[in-house]
Amino acid sequence: MNEHDVIVIGAGGAGLRAAIEAHEEGADVALVSKLHPVRSHTGAAEGGINAALHEEDSWELHAYDTMKGSDYLGDAPAIDAFAKEAPDEVIQLEHWGMPFSREEDGTVSQRPFGGLSHPRTTYAGAETGHHLLHTMYEQVVKRGIEVYEEWYVTRLAVTDHDNPDNRECYGCVGYDIKTGEVAGFYGSDGVILATGGLGQAFDHTTNAVANTGDGPAMAYRAGAPMEDMEFVQFHPTSLPSTGVLISEGVRGEGGILYNDEEERFMFEYGYANNEGELASRDVVSRAELTQINEGKGIEDEYVHLDMRHLGEERIVDRLENILHLAEDFEGVDGLSEPMPVKPGQHYQMGGVEVDEYGHTCINGLYTVGESACYSLHGSNRLGGNALPELLVFGARAGRHAAGGDVEQSQIPTGPSAKSENGDVDPPVDPGAVKNGGDPVAADGGAVAAPKQILDRAIETEEERIETLLERDGINHADVRETVQQTMTENVNVFREESNLKQALRDIREARAQYQNVGVSDPSRTYNTDLIHTIETRNVIDCAEAIALSALAREEFRGAHWRKQHQERKDDEWLKHTLLAWSDGNPELYYKPVILEGHDQTYEPKDRSY
Ligand SMILES: Cc1cc2nc3c(=O)[nH]c(=O)nc-3n(C[C@H](O)[C@H](O)[C@H](O)COP(=O)(O)OP(=O)(O)OC[C@H]3O[C@@H](n4cnc5c(N)ncnc54)[C@H](O)[C@@H]3O)c2cc1C
């Protein structure tokens, strides 16, 4: 058993920032990650990091833009803390040596991004995430923080008190991808989940293959609810063939979208008369798909993003990476041709329900980064707000877990935060398949001494892995494909009740099939078939939570468009969707949105760009 004060699961931007801060507070910290830290998906971030640095800008404006972008489904305490602390985090990065792009006078450059009232996106060329990861990994190495790389965490060690509010998390179980060893990681002060996105629940996504929603699914099964899962961001500019992202930085620098009649449709059809291409992402994605559905797409599939007029010097200086992506994946020269783009799944606004310190309702369990929902992005995230989020809340969670000084949280979590029961009528039962030997059973051990709980979790995982390796079952890839296809077809930008129900039926079918998966490769060394099989269970749980929450929310807010419910209904729906696993019987309930923060109160308004 590996023992530390704080265990951080995941070594992307959020995990690295949390680990550094916990270490600053004097804790013995360890990072456990299925990938080498600098291979984490944060490295793919291109566009930049929002922070109100300029004297004409202010944190209040950044907070307002974030609340408006969220379509008033963000919680003010989280939004205010975020906007206030983001500038210090960027300055801290600068001091750690992050190679930000700069102006002639040496100041850090900031460019416009969608939905921002001021150019406040700092960046390092079009490779911001890559430099961010390297800068923070250097700090981890410098501090001697222990990194267990290529260890895949399969389960949390959590007590099984009936009420999740009373549960405790003592660590996790990991599988060494290099050797096949199963071992425990004991965190006496806390466990911080930082496992990133869940894009693999869809088949057209900007996310990497490793983004399988492991953290949210493990926390959910251990008793921490998932929040606002219906809100999925579809980025307007992904490459049609692969889903690879073309950064919003292209539109930030002045890139223009055209349909097949060479009309600048964002203005021509009044989708966003003021901001045009730089409207919020949900607005631009809907506009593109409307054009495509009305027969104005190119090859009925995509639209064009044109940056030729920016000139070679500016493109090479600020967007060189984009040229390589367009050339390598579409065979298009961005200097002389427009690039094909269409909406693709990009970011999960929902995640594990946490307060503004990343703490879940389970004592000692934190979640940060894309796997968490602090109610910061609400129903739509603004471009450039995820990276400062993982810095601000990574640091907050690291400090909290290590026992640093923090104020009382204003955001309640767990079943005691419930204000209203949910009402949804799925066409099939969601949750665990109770046909015996169900591997999608509740996590957690009996209430016992902390290390016994971890020991029991280790035994359970050893048995599970043995079974998967020995069973002559079906391949996980077929199950995963069913889920990905139905999510892309039925739970996309435009949502209809019948489609959402179809997705739930397909996911149920996949869940039933998953009971019979087996791993054909018996090896214990770099057995990716085994890892992907375990991940697929998490993909199923996340996909189902998205589809079920989407079916329940009968309004149109932010990224969540419903054909039969074409308006935002503040009287009824100014509330967060919570889904609790409840030992395999998902329970839907709600809690109110908090529009009153420490410093300002927000009034829902019409949202136009
Ligand atoms: C292509 C792309 C471009 C983007 N560009 C921007 C941008 O310019 N600006 C912006 O603000 N946002 C951007 N975003 C969003 C932002 O980059 C992500 O939300 C953010 O980087 C996620 O960071 P993270 O630390 O939460 O997760 P990740 O960086 O994905 O890290 C997850 C970590 O968890 C580990 N892990 C996962 N599961 C397990 C497990 N079971 N056991 C052990 N370890 C595990 C992985 O090894 C990895 O280390 C972009 C997103 C994409 C996809």
Give a verbal description of the structure.
- The chain has helices at residues 13-24, 59-69, 76-95, 128-143, 214-222, 249-252, 265-268, 281-296, 312-330, 386-401, 450-470, 476-490, 497-514, 528-552, 570-573; strands spanning 2-9, 29-33, 49-50, 110-111, 121-122, 146-149, 151-158, 169-176, 182-193, 226-227, 232-238, 256-258, 303-306, 339-348, 351-353, 365-367, 372-373, 420-421, 494-495, 561-562, 575-580, 587-592.
- The protein is α/β, with parallel strands linked by helices and 609 residues long.
- The protein has three domains: 2-232 and 346-405, FAD/NAD(P)-binding domain (3-Layer(bba) Sandwich), CATH 3.50.50.60; 233-345, Succinate dehydrogenase/fumarate reductase flavoprotein, catalytic domain (Flavocytochrome C3, Chain A, domain 1, Alpha-Beta Complex), CATH 3.90.700.10; 450-572, Fumarate reductase/succinate dehydrogenase flavoprotein-like, C-terminal domain (Methane Monooxygenase Hydroxylase, Chain G, domain 1, Up-down Bundle), CATH 1.20.58.
- Strands 1, 2, 6, 7, 8, 9 and 16 form a seven-stranded mixed beta sheet that branches. The chain has a six-stranded mixed beta sheet with strand order 17-15-10-21-22-18, with helices on one face.
- Helix 1 (13-24) packs parallel to helix 4.
- The model is unreliable at 436-442 (pLDDT under 50).
- The site of flavin-adenine dinucleotide has 45 residues, from helix 1, strand 2, helix 4, strand 7 and strand 14.
